[in-house]
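ugh ok fine here u go
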Amino acid sequence: MYLTDFTRHCLEKAGWNPHRCVDITQVLSVLNAKGVYISAAAREFLSRFGGLVLSYPHFRSSSLDDSCHFIVERAAGNAEPIAIAEYMRVLDCRLTVIGEAFHDHMTMLMDENGAVFAGYEDTLVRLGDSGTEALNTLCEGREAQRVSYQMMNLESPTKDIPLTEVARTRLVEAGWLVRNSRRSFEEDLHAAQHNSASSHLVLDFLQEFGGISIACPAWNDDRAKDRCVFVRDAESHLPTGHLAEYERKLGKAVFAIGRMEKTGFVFLMSEDGRIYAGMPELPDIIWWIGDSAYDAINNICIGAARRRQM
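structure:
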C-alpha cells in the first residue's frame, strides 16, 4: 500500500519527508516506565511518523477541518486502560498506542502485524491493515471499518494478563515476591481455609498478596495519591447486606479482598477470579476492575479512573 498524493501532501505540510527517521529512544523510555507495551511494528511506524500532527478535511464535510497526531506520550496519557484491555480481548492481540485521531477523540492503536485501529469507549474501528493505509483513510476521509462486538461477556473464560513493569515495581516495593507464600499471613489463610464460603482463588490471592499495601494514583484524581491494601477483614468496611446485594447483581458469589485507603472502595473477588469494587455508600453500583488478579492490579497501579460500571 502506497501513500496517496493527498496523504503525502498532508504529511509534508506537517514536516514529514520520505527519508524521515526520528530517534524514539526517549519516547520508548517514557512508555516503558508507564508499563505501555510497544510492538516492533509500532516502533518502525513511530520512527517514521512519530511526533507529527496532521490536518485534513473532515470525513463528513470537506468544509470542516479534522486532525490526528502521533505524539505517543500524549495519546498514552489520555488513553483509557480498561477500554484498551477490552479491545485486546476482542481482537485477540496486543495493541500499542500510537496516537489520537478525530480531533483527539479516539485513541489510535497498532497491532503486532501493523494493522491500525481507533477506539473510544465501546466504539472500535479499523483504519487499515498498515500504518500507510490508516494514513490514507484519515487524510482521504475514507470510511473506516467498524469492528462489531459487545461489551465483554463476563461469563466467558479469559486469559490471564501478565503484570506490567509498573505494577511489578510497585508490588516489589511493597514486599511482594512472585508466587510467594508469606508466613506472616499464615493465620489469616488458616482462618480462610476453615471458611466454607471462600473459594480456592481467594485463598490463592490472599496467599500471594495478602497484607500488601501498594502505592497508586487516586481513582478520582490521578495527580493525587492513594494506597490499595489487600486484607482479609475488608468485608468489615462494608455495611451489612452489601455482599449479598453484589452477589444478587452479579449472579455469583463474591468475597471482599481489600480496599482503597482514601477513597474507600472495597475490592471483591468473584468465585471465577474476576475483580470488582464497591463503595460502602453505593450498594447498588459495582465497578469491574479486572478479569484476574494481575489484570486488576495492573489497572489499579495506573489509576484506572474510568472503570466500567456494572
